[in-house]
Structures are given as C-alpha cells and as structure tokens.
Amino acid sequence: MSTPRQLTRAELAIDPIDAAKLLLGCVLEAGDVRVRLAEVEAYRGIDDPASHCYRGRTPRNEVMWGPAGHLYVYFVYGMHFCANVVSLTDGVAGAVLLRAGEVVAGLDVARSRRPAARSDAELAKGPARLTSVLGLDRGDNGVDLTDPASPVRLYAGDPVPPASILAGPRVGVAVAMEVPWRFWVDGSPAVSGYRRGGKRRVRTVR
DNA sequence: ATGAGGATCCTCT
DNA sequence: GAGGATCCTCATA
Predict the structure, then answer these.
(1) Beta bridge partners of A153
(2) DSSP code string of A77-142
(3) Which run of H or E residues covers position A29?
(4) What pLDDT, on the 0 to 100 scale, is given for residue A206?
(5) Which of A97, A124, A140, A195 is 20 to 30 Å from the Cα of A152, by its Cα?
(6) A15 membership: H or E segment, kind and range
C-alpha cells in the first residue's frame, strides 16, 4: 500500500453531514495504530439540540468553533473519551463523532489497550473504544489532523461507494431522533449497534 | 457552591 | 436487557 494522502483542512470545511460521509473509509493514525472509520455521526451547531454547541460557546466545546480538520476530544460518563473531527470553519460549530472503525495497523498495541475485546472487530467498535485503541485522551483535544507533524493524523482511504453508506438516527441521544445523521459502512463488522437515547424526560403536554 | 445529567462500556442475569 | 462505575461540565442560585 502506497503512502496515503493526508486530508486537508479545506476539504473538511463543509457541512458535518457531508463531512461524515466523506470520513467513512478514511484512516486515523496515532502512534503505531491505524483505524479505518466505519461509523460516524454528524453534529451541527446551534440548531442541533444534541450538539455540545447547542447552547453556545463554552470552554469544553471551544474547538468545535475553530478551524476544520482539528480533533475535538471530550470526556464522558466519568471514564471515557470520545473523538470528533471538526468540520465547517471558524466561527461556525460543526463536528463528526467517530463512532467505530476497523484496526488496520498496530493490532498488538490495540489488543493490549483493550483487554476486554472478545474479537479484533470489537477493538474499535464504539466511540470510547476507538479513542482507547488509539490512545487518545484530553491531551489530544485540538490537534490539527491535517498537519503531517501532528501526533494524530487523518488520511484518505479506499473510497466507500455511496451505495454502501447507510444512514439512521444517532446513537444514545434522546433528542432530534428524526434526523438520520449517523452514517456507517454497510456490512462492516465494526459497526456498533443502535441504542436509543436514555432517560430524557418527555414533557407531557397538557 | 451545588447538583443533575451525560454523544459509554462492562458485567452480570 | 439492566445496572453500576465515575467525574466532568454547565446551569442555576
């Protein structure tokens, strides 16, 4: 396999829904580990109630408002990290959550980081598992994925035929269920299952 | 200063 | 399929 092409900031400075489809099949690299993305979710800015940016700019979501092609990492549930690729551009929030992928290099390291995985397909099957396999954490928040010198980089992969891209509601969110902004590669063993959003109180109208 | 609620995962049953 | 782990972030006061 020849040296893959690194993605550019300009090609990621698009609507997160388009960026999500573009990212499928692309490869994220950190250290010795490479993951080929199989499942992603688009999050928009202030018009998306499920987005971290829905209520405006805060210290946590700062990176999402910045330039495209940077990594937005956040901490959830007191123990996990999730990673996003920032899309759109300065001043307009948008990002794509990296939900799952297939480990295509660094299998031994990946396995050692995920002792609970029962198969290689499970290594990066889920957003927190994906960050875990790549060794990403708080310190990687904001890194430029389009810079060859960055510790985490994003490369183009074999293109995914549009017919192989499926869409559905986002996982684990209890609002905006009607928008099919989760995209995945049909048939990929790494795609995580759908799970409805938890306990959001449904306000009873009277 | 406080408290509620997570873009999850793992271990059981 | 349910429940717990675990702590950060933000809104409210």
Answers:
(1) A29
(2) TTTEEEEEEE-S-TTS-EEEEEEEEEEEE-HHHHHHH-TT-SSGGGTTBSHHHHHHHHT--GGGTT
(3) strand A27-30
(4) 25
(5) A195
(6) none
CA–C1' A151–B11 (A)? 34
Which nucleotide lies nearest residue A75, CA to C1'? C8
Taking the C1' atom of every nucleotide in all shown strands and the CA of A64, the nearest one is: B7
Q: Determine the pLDDT at residue A199.
A: 57
Pick out chain A residues at pLDDT < 70. 1-2, 198-206
A114 CA → C6 C1’, Å: 19
Closest nucleotide to A54, Cα to C1':
C10
- d(Cα A80, Cα A82) in Å, to the nearest integer? 7
**Chain B: bases < 7 Å from a protein Cβ:** 5-11
- Kindly give, in sequence order, each residue whose CB lies less than 8 Å from that of residue A116, ignoring residues fewer than 6 positions away: none
